[in-house]
């Protein structure tokens, strides 16, 4: 029997659907035909049980989607709990304090994921590289959640093309450094967050530069640069995200190295056993506790990850896909297209042009990538290749909102250590409003070396008593900075649904 595709229920409540308007694309080199991209005329905002997003009129999102398109985040409720007169509230569990003003500011998200997670958020230092439309969305969501600091690195200046989908920029910023121009508007979202702009080149930073951050997020960079950054984050045991958008298409990749988290759920009739759950996931501890007349099961898990260069080039699809012709046919062909693009960038140090030579090279490369993934040849056709090539280098605001919202939410979940994280590649197709998740890891000895736990399994990682919605567990880390810091979404942001590849 083929494994069932599972989804996670939406978390939180959506108080008011966010308005999403179409925007023109901002191509870097070759523009999409006509120079502008708009949503189909029959597209409307749709509110479903999975969230708020864009879809054709009278149509809900396909259940095969990894997450429901959302990405717009409400401001924290600044009026809740305002009667506490600013007095500091002490939390003996960790010896730190959080003021009543901060409790009032972040009230809704504290109710969603708890005080301990919020304190981790406020201690987190995040590095965000390349301030284009996707990074704008990520920065907005993390700053509104109240992270400790956000460092923006971008050595490019604002151009007219940047104004099409980047809401932190205006015409008066043309000619200014993108990081510096965006930082001024980002700071206004939440004055409690330290926003730092760096106009230097990320490739000129030493490897030790990355040790100062808890999480590094690299957006819209070529494959060679992403491999360099991921190598540096691995050396300093820092968690790494890569993401990019090309018109209607995009991706998210994460390398969390070795990530521990705790899931809370009602205890089932069948007990959860400690041990290996999948190729990348282990159950390290299980505890139960009584709460509200129910028995709650607390399950500590550990996920293992591969590096960017292995996932982007050499890794195969999971075994359960290879055993199922139906699942292979369902794999998005844009995974092959993206791999071909990354290969082209590494070889030519640029994106494909619209000349015959580049098109032939890209088509041959995409076909080879498709074959190496053991995918049916007829699922990659000329229409798909043409659509992908026309979208390369452009930005569409609704697409970057979806990707940025998903990535920021996963960062928050990872730092809070209370949700299943991405494992390890998400491919988004804006034409279908679907995003599929694939666990891409190498086979053979290399795969075994990548997915071997560096730390021994720790059986006593779950506290005996843990408030619902606020799990906490130990996570031994290396380096000067603590890695277990969280960024979380405010209440009202529905939890995006994942179609697990494991």
Automatic annotation (TrEMBL):
Residues 12-37 have a biased composition (Low complexity). Residues 106-437 form the THIF-type NAD/FAD binding fold domain. The keyword Magnesium does not apply. The keyword Transport does not apply. Pathway: Protein modification; protein sumoylation. Its main location: nucleus. InterPro entries: ThiF/MoeB/HesA, ThiF_NAD_FAD-bd, Ubiquitin-activating_enz, UBQ/SUMO-activ_enz_E1-like. Keywords: Nucleus, Ubl conjugation pathway. It is found in: Nucleus. CDD domains: Aos1_SUMO (cd01492). PANTHER family: SUMO-ACTIVATING ENZYME SUBUNIT 1, UBIQUITIN-ACTIVATING ENZYME E1. This is Ubiquitin-like 1-activating enzyme E1A.
């Amino acid at each position: 029997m083929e494994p069932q595709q599972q989804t996670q229920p939406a978390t939180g409540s959506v108080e008011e659907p966010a308005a999403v308007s179409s925007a023109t694309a901002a191509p870097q080199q070759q523009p999409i035909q006509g120079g502008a991209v708009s949503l189909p005329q029959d597209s409307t905002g749709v509110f479903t049980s999975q969230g708020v997003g864009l879809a054709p009129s009278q149509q809900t999102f396909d259940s095969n989607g990894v997450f429901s398109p959302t990405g717009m985040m409400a401001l924290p409720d600044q009026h809740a709990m305002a009667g506490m007169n600013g007095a500091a509230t002490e939390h003996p569990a960790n010896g730190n304090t959080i003021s009543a003003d901060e409790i009032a500011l972040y009230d809704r998200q504290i109710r969603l994921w708890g005080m301990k997670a919020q304190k981790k958020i406020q201690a987190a230092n995040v590095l965000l590289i390349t301030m284009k439309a996707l990074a704008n969305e990520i920065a907005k969501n993390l700053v509104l959640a109240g992270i400790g600091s956000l460092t923006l690195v971008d050595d490019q200046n604002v151009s007219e093309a940047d104004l099409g989908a980047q809401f932190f920029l205006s015409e008066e910023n043309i000619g200014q450094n993108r990081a510096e121009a965006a930082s001024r508007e980002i700071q206004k979202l939440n004055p409690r967050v330290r926003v730092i702009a760096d106009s230097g080149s990320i490739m000129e930073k030493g490897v030790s530069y990355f040790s100062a951050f808890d999480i590094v997020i690299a957006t819209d960079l070529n494959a060679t640069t992403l491999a360099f950054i991921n190598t540096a984050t691995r050396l300093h045991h820092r968690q790494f995200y890569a993401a990019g958008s090309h018109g209607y298409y995009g991706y998210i990749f994460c390398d969390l190295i070795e990530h521990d988290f705790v899931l809370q759920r009602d205890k089932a009739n069948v007990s959860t056993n400690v041990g290996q759950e999948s190729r990348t996931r282990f159950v390290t501890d299980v505890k139960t506790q009584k709460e509200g007349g129910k028995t709650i099961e607390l399950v500590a898990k550990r996920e293992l990850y591969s590096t960017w260069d292995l996932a982007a080039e050499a890794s195969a699809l999971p075994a359960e896909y290879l055993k199922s012709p139906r699942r292979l046919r369902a794999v998005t062909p844009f995974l092959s297209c993206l791999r071909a693009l990354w290969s082209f960038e590494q070889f030519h140090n640029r994106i494909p042009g619209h000349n015959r030579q580049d098109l032939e090279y890209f088509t041959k490369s995409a076909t080879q990538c498709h074959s190496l993934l053991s995918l049916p040849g007829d699922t990659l056709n000329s229409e798909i290749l043409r659509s992908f090539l026309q979208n390369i280098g452009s930005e569409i605001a609704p697409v970057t909102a979806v990707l940025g919202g998903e990535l920021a939410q996963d960062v928050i979940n990872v730092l809070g250590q209370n949700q299943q994280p991405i494992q390890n590649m998400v491919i988004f197709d804006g034409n279908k409003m679907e995003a599929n998740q694939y666990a891409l890891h190498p086979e053979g000895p290399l795969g075994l070396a990548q997915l071997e736990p560096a730390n021994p399994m720790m059986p006593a990682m779950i506290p005996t008593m843990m408030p619902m919605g606020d799990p906490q567990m130990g996570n031994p880390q290396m380096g000067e900075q603590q890695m277990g810091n969280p960024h979380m979404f405010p209440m009202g942001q529905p939890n995006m649904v994942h179609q697990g590849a494991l």
